[in-house]
Amino acid sequence: ELNGYAHFMEKEIFEQPAALENSMRGRFSEDGSTAKFGGLNLGPVDFRQIDRFAFLGCGTAWHSCLVAEHLIERFARVPVEVDYASEFRYRNAPLSGNPLFFVMSQSGETIDTLGALREAQRKGYKVLAINNTVGSTIAREADGGIYQHVGPEIGVASTKAFTSQLLIGAMLALHVARMRDMSFADGVEYVNALKSAPNLVRKALEQAGHIKAIAQRLAKYNDMLFLGRLSLFPIALEGALKLKEISYIHAEGYPAAEMKHGPIALINELCPSVFFAPKGEIFNKVVSSMQEVKARKGPVIAIITEGCELPEGLADEVITIPDCHEAVLPIVATIPVQLLSYYIAVARDCDVDKPRNLAKSVTVE
Ligand code: M6R
User: Fold this and answer.
1) Mean pLDDT along residues 104-113
2) How far apart are CA 224 and CA 240, in angstroms?
3) Are 342 and 352 spatial neighbours (Cβ–Cβ below 8 Å)?
4) What spacing in Å lies between the alpha carbon of 358 and ligand 1's midpoint?
């Protein structure tokens, strides 16, 4: 079943190009300018009335909700709120307007997410599910939804289910954007970018050997920071979660500019920082944050866009990712941090597929 891989997590990381193909299959319009979903149970006129989205999930799924928020607000200009499912169900949040709820859950059995779904439905809202398990409790109770179609995920640390959720969030942003302001031409460009995602992920995976060598050098540390901005802030959270889950290294994710408001106190030669610094408007800002870490002797691991350069001597380790459309960037940027946490955990001799204290689906409160 492992097909020559050492662990399910490794297999599932390398399966991602195919998994993304499966999540996209049959989901673009014939004119190639938008995404379509069969199971929303919501016609275009109803969909047009939605003035706000609410996304709920736990753990890694909550991170994919945060990326969906970024892309929907950025491209469709519709406000989105994200909440931990476990908090939403008891928070009694005031809701106004005409929101549409999405619950995000790979397993479809997470009890907190199910509780949040029931609470939203009790209040009279329609709840759709983004889910990987056909026939799961959440899939059955939701008012419709989108299946991820990535096949079973065995490793406790979510990998291919996460990037597939990022892809579906990006497709949803496109779907909503094309019903509002996005032009046909921008839609076609967006669709082509999504179609290129599997190949870009394949390219990012080619860095595996290089990342393994870096991981061996990082495996001795006990604290690490992950720093990213905009759509890569949630990927920083995901990198930190992945690392702590499987290697038991204490790790935190922050927006890079937040560092100076507290976490910078942790920086010294024993606390490396992984920075996402893709090319674009905030590249220089991220570089300044790296300089602040370097000035305090913190080891810097920089994830940058292929072809870009950093000031001489700033980064101790550099990992590149291929240049890509904004909608695909979170997916591509996830690959190096999955590989990094996987190889660090292997170097520390941890039980990668079955980390201590964790279950694949959390069916208790
Ligand atoms: O099955 P779900 O997507 O509802 O699971 C939610 C979380 O329990 C899950 O993502 C958890 O954080 C993973 N272990 C992350 O790797």
Assistant:
1) 97
2) 8
3) yes
4) 10
Computed over its alpha carbons, how large is the radius of gyration of the chain? 20
Q: Is 356 left (phi over 0), alpha (psi -120 to 50) or beta?
A: beta
- Distance (Å, whole) CA 163 – CA 153: 12
- For atom 16 of ligand 1, the residue with the nearest CA is 157
Distance 363 CA to ligand 1 centre (A): 11
pLDDT of residue 347: 98
Contact 327, 284 (CB under 8 A): no
Q: What is the dihedral of CA 167, 333, 160, 13, to 10 degrees?
A: 150
Is 285 one of the catalytic residues?
no
- Report whether residue 355 contacts ligand 1, using a CB cutoff of 6 Å: no
Tally Cβ neighbours within 10 Å of residue 194.
Answer: 22
CB of residue 60 inside a 6 A radius of ligand 1: yes
Q: What is the pTM of this model?
A: 0.97
The beta strand positions in the chain, using DSSP E, are 52-57, 80-84, 99-105, 127-131, 145-147, 223-228, 250-255, 273-277, 300-305, 317-321
Give the whole-angstrom CA distance, residue 160 versus residue 12: 6
Query: Is the CB of 107 inside a 6 Å radius of any atom of ligand 1?
Result: yes
The response to whether residue 320 sits with its C-beta less than 6 Å from ligand 1 reads no
Closest CA to 335 of 211, 178, 177, 228: 211
Q: How many CA atoms lie within 13 A of 48 on its CB side?
A: 7
CA-CA distance, 69 to 80, in Å (whole number)? Answer: 5
Averaged pLDDT score across all residues of the chain: 96
Instruction: Please give the Cα distance from 114 to 129 (Å, whole number).
Output: 10
pLDDT in tens, 21-44: 999 999 999 999 999 999 998 888
pLDDT digits (tens, 9 = 90+) for 186-226: 999 999 999 999 999 999 999 999 999 999 999 999 999 99
∠ CA 115-117-121 to the nearest 5 degrees? 115
